[in-house]
Amino acid sequence: MGGKRTVMRPLDRQVILVTGATDGLGRELARRLAAAGATVLLHGRNRARGEALLREIRGATGDHRASLHLADLASLAEVRRLADDVLGSRDRLDVLVNNVGVGPGRPGARREVSRDGFELRFAVNYLALFLLTRLLRPLLVRSAPARIVNVASAGQASLDLDDPMLERGYDGAWPTAGASSRW
Questions:
Q1: How many CB atoms sit inside 10 A of residue 100's CB?
Q2: What is the pLDDT of residue 182?
Q3: Which of 15, 20, 55, 155 suits a disulfide with 26, CB 3.0-4.6 Å?
């Protein structure tokens, strides 16, 4: 390719923020990164689950560098608070793993909105992660070579640019049928 290659620090010298670390893929990723020696910043919105994971990681690794950062990413104010917390507590961030996400609702479910009035999935899966990445970007740049990893699944769908707030034809099973503009 001709571009300059940059080599990441060894894993045991990296600071890695994993959003959605208290459940599913994020939980397993956080556990494995900590077991490999990385300093893992665990994000979650449930204190009990976050503290249980933190105890588990510390007990399994004997390493007390992992930390818990609570925030409900359905609130842009809490996204900002999370970023401020990370920026105020770390002088380096080697990897940001944007793992958190809200999957499709159940057929017939009511449309949900975030604290800021955005459709819940749009707020968490798009707006929150964009804002968090933007706010942490200066720290990532200073920490170069750093990486941003965006995780997606089959449960996430393309954004309907004609109806990002899912106001038309919402039936609980996201995305809505007949959406016209998809990424």
A1: 24
A2: 37
A3: 20
